[in-house]
Write a structure and sequence with these properties.
Rossmann fold; single chain; 7-stranded mixed beta sheet; ornithine cyclodeaminase, domain 1; alpha/beta
Length: about 325
């Protein structure tokens, strides 16, 4: 049986191609040709294990992982639609790619249409780095990228990395200063308290909230959720269990779940919402993502196809132990 490790996945995949594959997968989901489950967790005093599954033609499969002290160990199992086991993949690299690729889809469908020029990323971990690269690809008119993290040295290192990629990046001393006037705001932290108030957001801001993957996390406060003219989620059913941002807003009476729109409905064209800064009452738009198995299986299928097409690449070098140097955010 073939196993594809993280180092090989990173050689096989790139963000633009993963985004294109996710666009196809979300379209299939919106047309009922694909399906995904909610995440389930088994938790005891001794540990935690989680699992989720999806059908994304021509593949089906799932991701299982262990969580220890906030660290994740992922494995993806891939089948064909006849039930034949194709192989397995390490899931860390797939997760690092499919999460910013999903935010890219939200930008394509929800961002201010008149060429967003200012963006902000709050957080300094691996997902922050992936989103910085995604913003470079998705915002060709990007004139300024503002970065803020809990530790200034982490934000400065990320800014250096961004500038090396040709991105005009600056370090913002606070989250408020990062988001004021920004056209696209990405939050990728493990915060349990809101990062900025509603008044700090521009009417044309799209907020891609990536960090609230559990009920007790809250990057985006109820005042922000209430102010947004549209709320889009990658999975509304899962958000009712996992999205601390929306759960807190609903508990405060400042958000009605009937307002939430599924991303797959937008991508498939079965629903529509006004882009940020447009519509009869212009205002910011919120996109909430906790991650779904459909993203993992779609990206894993692409890696599988490219691996089979390049057998001459040979076995990968050992990638060594996973990089656990950051603590800001890794979406499961």
């Amino acid at each position: 049986m073939i196993h594809i490790d993280d180092a090989t996945v990173l050689r096989l995949l790139d963000l633009p191609s993963v985004t294109t594959r996710l666009d196809e997968a979300y379209t299939a989901w919106g047309q009922a040709r694909a399906a995904t489950t909610q995440r389930v967790r088994a938790t005891s005093t001794e540990g935690m294990a989680s699992a989720m599954a999806a059908v994304v033609p021509p593949y089906s499969g799932g991701k299982v992982y262990a969580t220890v002290d906030g660290r994740f160990t992922f494995v993806i199992v891939l089948f064909d639609l006849d039930g034949r086991l194709l192989g397995t993949l390490d899931g860390d690299a797939v997760t690092r790619l499919r999460t910013p690729a999903t935010s890219a889809l939200a930008i394509r469908h929800l961002a201010w249409a008149d060429g967003p020029r200012v963006a902000a990323v709050i957080g300094g971990g691996r997902q922050a780095r992936g989103h910085v690269e995604m913003l470079r690809d998705e915002l060709p008119d990007l004139a300024e990228l503002r970065l803020h993290a809990r530790r200034t040295d982490v934000a400065e290192a990320l800014a250096d990395r961004a500038r090396d990629l040709g991105i005009p990046a600056v370090v913002a001393p606070s989250a408020i200063e990062a988001v004021e006037g920004a056209d696209v705001v990405v939050t990728v932290t493990s915060s349990r308290t809101p990062l900025f108030p509603a008044w700090a957001l521009s009417d044309r801001a799209l907020v891609c909230a990536v960090g609230a993957t559990k009920y007790d996390r809250c990057e985006i406060g109820p005042d922000v959720v209430e102010r947004c003219v549209a709320v889009v989620a990658d999975d509304v059913t899962g958000s009712r269990t996992e999205c601390g941002d929306l759960l807190e807003a609903a508990a405060a009476g400042r958000f009605d779940w009937d307002r939430a729109v599924e991303l797959h409905a937008l991508v498939a064209g079965t629903a529509a919402v006004a882009r940020a800064g447009t519509g009869p009452t212009p205002g910011p738009v919120l996109f909430e993502t906790q991650g779904v198995a459909l993203q993992d299986i779609a990206a894993a299928g692409l890696a599988w196809e490219r691996h089979l097409a390049s057998p001459e690449s040979g076995p990968p070098e050992s990638p060594g132990p996973p990089d656990r140097s950051d603590t800001d955010k890794e979406q499961p």
